[in-house]
Amino acid sequence: MADTVSITFHGAAGTVTGSCMELRHDGRRLLVDCGLFQGSRTLETLNHRPFAFNPRQIDAVVLTHAHIDHCGLLPRLVAEGFEGDIWCTGPTSDLLEFMLADAGRIQESEVAQRNRRRDRAGQKLFEPLYTETDAIAAWRQSRPVALGTWFTPAAGVRARLWNAGHILGSASVELEIGGVRLLCSGDLGPEHKAFHPEPESPAGFDHVICESTYGDRKREHLTLEQRRSILEAEIGSALARGGNLVIPVFALERTQELLLDMAMLIRAKRIAAVPIFIDSPLAERATRVFSRYSGTLEDLEAGDVFKDSAFHFVRDVAESIRLNSLTGAIILAASGMCEAGRIRHHLKHNLARRESTILFVGFQAQGSLGRVILDGAERVRISGAEVAVRAQIRRIDTYSAHADQDDLLAWIAARQPIAGSLFLTHGEPDSAEALRRLAQGHGHGRTIVTPLIGEEYRLPAGQPAARTKTGDPAVQAATGRDWQNSYADFATKLKQRLDEVGNAEARQQAIDAMRAVLDSYRQARSRRKRESSRHTPA
Ligand SMILES: [Zn+2]
Known about the structure:
Blueprint: E1 6-9, E2 21-25, E3 28-32, H1 41-45, E4 60-62, H2 68-71, H3 74-79, E5 85-88, H4 90-120, H5 132-139, E6 142-144, E7 151-154, E8 157-163, E9 171-177, E10 180-184, E11 207-211, H6 224-240, E12 245-248, H7 254-267, E13 276-279, H8 281-292, E14 311-313, H9 317-322, E15 330-333, H10 343-350, E16 357-360, H11 369-374, E17 379-382, E18 385-388, E19 392-395, H12 405-413, E20 421-425, H13 429-441, E21 447-449, E22 456-458, E23 466-469, H14 473-478, H15 482-500, H16 504-535
Parallel strand pairs: 3-4, 4-5, 5-6, 10-11, 11-20, 12-15, 12-16, 13-14, 13-15, 16-19, 20-21
Antiparallel strand pairs: 1-2, 1-22, 2-3, 7-8, 8-9, 9-10, 17-18, 22-23
Bound molecules: zinc ion.
């Protein structure tokens, strides 16, 4: 049926990364976002599988914002033949240039590192997913458009962007395609977010696609001033100890929020005017984009706060190393989870000092160095060296760029009436499910769908969506929990690995050995059961 509109979820379904939706109508193909999968090794293998569509046949991309899990596969899309425009807001286009370039450099250096090992072992070398050159080529295809202005990404398709209140430049996407009115939320910001007004979009759609990252979490809704007071207290006690205050930060948005709050606290003489070093080239570039758009941002009553004389942007590595001899300074450095970047050498020099303070202000994923420190490790390994943790470890969790459960429900309520279906994407299964139950209770949408990766739906005007294709179970398992990740990986490679075993007899032995391992678990379990029943007093 040429005239029906359909949507396929290629990522951020059953998981929070890899955002990519494909809309098709009458021979036209449009992507909303083309993001990188980030997280476990298994999840990241999805970045390397062939696209489920031909990049040459995509007419255009509409990009919601510059976070890598939404834009990080664009360089690969372009390298594989996509020639259309990447529509986004002006700030997103400006941020995209170095966010993608940085991602390209990371891809190149990670592969170089792995290849050094493989080269020594005489193994086949990997190719990077894409390079910095690919990244810049993709950025050149970006096409800025103002919020609220209709544009035509493909023949017969009209679109408009709306403020999503998540990070600088973030937008929701309104689409009119084949007589169907759609809205894709993109990532939504919380109430009381610095710089950006609360998300706004029109109401009355056939179908709405809403993110559900924090669909199962309620946060205290603090005002900017309440948050600033918490920061003031942390900075005050850190400086009173006489050591450095080291803050791991995300280069985009969190850095600028902290700079705004610190500038305000300094101007009001609520904290001492100590030097504040921003030791991240990416954060400096992002801050420059904030300055460029300062006329459109909220909460900047006092002009360009980013140019405050207390702030010192650290350019080269030599200057960064000189900070090691300092004491009584505030140092902001990336990466936010301490997995890479200059923060690692600041941790190396400050973790062991009792007078230093490490202040976490962002999400720390399981397994990251930031999380290990936060969870109370007494010693950590940083670039090959053992470091004792003696510094004060502090945390503020009141900064967030994401809507919580209440914010999401309010956003969905404000989009009513939704004549067809409400899709909940971009969430772990528990978050999407919690939000689905609540949204249903509130009577939002005639049907609520939590799509899985790879699924395709028909989107009729005024009617609930209908699933027309299921996804690949192996890919779906990769977005699931850890054991499922390993299982999917194991299952897909099993045949290949057996084929590599020399002959039929050896293969049979390998299968017998695997079976024996599984049997041994079962035997051990029944033995334990028998023993515990013997020892149970009558
Ligand atoms: Zn985001």
